[in-house]
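Lab notebook, bench 4. Still working through the backlog of constructs that have no structural model yet. Next entry is a single chain of 303 residues. Request: give me the structure tokens for it.
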Amino acid sequence: MITSSRHPYYYTISFALLIAAGMWGLFWIPQRALEAGGLTGGWATISQMVIPFAMLLPISLWRLYKGQSFGLEYPLIGLLFGGGIACYANSFLLTDVVRALILFYITPVWTTIFEIVFLRQIPRFYRYITLALALSGVWIVFGQEGVIPLPQNSGDWIALLGGILIAASAVRMEIKKPEGIYPILFSFFFYGGIFTLIQSYFLSDYLGDAPSIESWVAMMPWLILIAILFHIPTNIVILGAPSRIGAGIFSIIILFEIVVGTFSAAVLTDELIGWREILGSSFIIFAGLTEIIFASKTEEDTG
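Model written out:
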């Protein structure tokens, strides 16, 4: 069994992860702008892997020259996390948005299972509470039809696979505990980019026509800005969190993306917010707070 004491910056990292997840809840805003600029379908997903990699490559070459880590020593983490993000993004091309969200965001279940199998950690009592709250919140927000969304098509299965890969990557990072964040960040964009390109090849019929050169040129400043202000900083936090606060709490906190995404869409668009969104979001927030507080106190008692 793997045991660990609470990280000295446990609450700071948890709060930073909460902010990073919330930023992903706002990502639909630049995503719509990119689509309006001609980067439709999965082309935006491809560009958002390739461009940060290209921007980080000179840093990796400099690190190699200085005898430091080049950043490719975590292929499994990069493939798992990058593959999970690619599956999540591309699942929307193949199935309903609601189904993709529900099937992806049962991630905490897979994380708990992987913790039992690979970390030999028996879930403590509060994990059952947080799982019930988190999954209930997701279901209340998105389960409009009242039917359990069992996978029915390729998009459903890809969304489900995305959640499994994210959970596996979080547990892998908790086991491996990488030294420094840059190597896993670069590994994520490199190996995740390879996964995205291969997956996009098999999904080429759903990507739509390749954007014109004019569209790429017009959107390139925005893609670079998004990489600098969004993709790189949020992934620094997200990739650094599991090994420091634990995969289980990580998988609960990232659900905050749903809360921010739901309320921001209601405020900035014509989408209405009702009792489902308010109640479900409250459940998700309470689940995150419960996991943070109880996990912290448990580690203090056993540390």
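Notes after review: The radius of gyration is 19 Å. The longest helix spans residues 213-240. Flag for follow-up if needed.
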